[in-house]
Amino acid sequence: MLGRMDAPESTARSTLDLVHDLRALLRPDQVDVSASALTLHARGESCDVTRLPDVVVYPESSDDVQRVMAHAYETGTPVTPVAINSSLEGHTVPLHGGVSLDMTRMDRIVELAPHDFLAVVQPGVTYPKLNEALRATGLFFTVDPGAEASLGGMASTNASGTMAVRYGVMGDLVLGLEVVTPTGRVIRTGGRSRKSSSGYALTRLFCGAEGTLGVITELTVRLSARPAAVMGARLAFDTVSTCVAFVTELIQSGASVARCELVDRQAVAAIRNHLDLPLADAHTVFLEFHGDEATVASAAALAIDLAREHGSTAAETAPDGDALRALWRGRHQAFYAMVAAHPGMANLITDLAVPVSRLAEVIDASLETVASVGLPGYVLGHVGDGNFHLTIFFPEDDAEARARVSAAHAELVRLTLAAGGTCTGEHGIGLRKLPYVRAEHGDAVDLMWAIKDAFDPAGIMNPGKKLPPRDGSAA
Ligand SMILES: Cc1cc2nc3c(=O)[nH]c(=O)nc-3n(C[C@H](O)[C@H](O)[C@H](O)COP(=O)(O)OP(=O)(O)OC[C@H]3O[C@@H](n4cnc5c(N)ncnc54)[C@H](O)[C@@H]3O)c2cc1C
Question: How far is the CA of 87 from the centre of ligand 1 (A)?
């Protein structure tokens, strides 16, 4: 066993020894050192930091993970879990080499228990796959990040998506976990009951741990009944502030809002060009209401009335089915439309969240900051729960532009924290948000390190992520 440390460099033993040992523990086809596998696991989505792992390992069971972790603990080998690799902050870059633990082969739905409103899955199951399996049950799983992510990855980033405003985020919906710890022990946290006051809340702790405390090998998640009726609305406004004022009032009215997304005028233009959709040239709010027929009809009517009071320039509603899908299509493709508008450019996506009552002022200040940077920027996001993304595009190899964008991001985080918000509503810290963790959590970071040390005394689990250096030096 190794001593306590922030992040060991890859094992002192040679890669050859490591691969030899792992091939003895698993089948040969589960241990890959091909150039293509290493390259594929060297980087994450939307983050340009790269580092090759020494080896990619594909566990197929908890047992496999347990053997790999016990070996890693004995030899001090860094291990970075990865699933669909759609996280946006460099979470999965194997910064210190070692093993990339690719969880995608653990993709079995273990049990559907509709009467208990729960499902038990392996971590590599994606949420679309789970929802496909649930189709005949009248139930669904409600967390829907834009990418087709895995439940293990989603739990580990405490992901949310368009429906969190009604149904909650991953941490609210994970009832229990099986986890292999960084010392090679298999533990179970939580269980199958909807509530529990027993022990410390370890399940919640693993939600959002970004693979730094252990490897999730099974999840028990809570399901929801499909609503009897669904209705959508799309409303256009002249200014972002009016959109936000409208949304704030709508949420505060208690209407049965299940989705509430803002797409600013620039992003609407990108969507129009990319998908050739007949969208109004305006800042746009996309809404969806869930409930029974009467509830969704009255919620939609209330939204239209309120929107008119706020000077809405166009309003449409759509019943469930093809019409609803058509109404929402632009929102679901917004990120890809923005990327298509700036071929070859890099982007930085902020992920700020504030109390809803402070949203308008923080978005306004953010837009001013972006205007001062002089680069293309777009606002979209899950404004119903105070979470918005500002995406700024800049030339990939322009160091000066990159520095300006980073400085703007730092300023936006400062404004957000001053408004009682957080630097990340759903994407997580990964690598890129490390500089903001101390500013947000102060001395609590020292206790977070104590937790990390208790779980991972050798510092081998996804080292270099989630927590800034313990000595307070710059991340
Ligand atoms: C177009 C687009 C839209 C997006 N929209 C949203 C959105 O609306 N909301 C949102 O929350 N996110 C969004 N994301 C980000 C991303 O989809 C989420 O962060 C998602 O939760 C990552 O899941 P994944 O399976 O890709 O995990 P990965 O990216 O593979 O891993 C994510 C983290 O989890 C860890 N991990 C993975 N599997 C395990 C495991 N079994 N045990 C322990 N640790 C593990 C990894 O080490 C890493 O730290 C979006 C991304 C893209 C590209």
Answer: 4
- The second-level CATH assignment, the architecture, of 15-104+446-455 is 2-Layer Sandwich (3.30)
The overall pTM is greater than 0.85: yes
pLDDT single digits (tens) 34-66:
999 999 999 998 788 899 999 999 999 999 999
The predicted-structure confidence for 431-459, as pLDDT tens digits, reads as follows: 999 999 999 999 999 999 999 999 999 99
Rounded CA-CA distance 47/50 in Å is 8
- Report whether CATH 3.40.50.150 matches the domain 229-336: no
Tokens found for residue 356: 């809803």
Q: Which CATH number fits domain 342-428: 3.30.499.10, 3.40.50.970, 1.10.10.60, 3.30.70.2740?
A: 3.30.70.2740
Of ligand 1's atoms, which has the minimum distance to the CA of residue 335?
1
Q: Atom 15, ligand 1: which residue's CA is nearest?
A: 87
Q: Is 153 in the pocket of ligand 1 (CB under 6 A)?
A: yes
pLDDT tens, position by position, 100-111: 999 999 999 999
Ligand 1 nearest atom to the CA of residue 428, by list position: 19
Q: What is the CATH number of domain 108-225?
A: 3.30.465.10
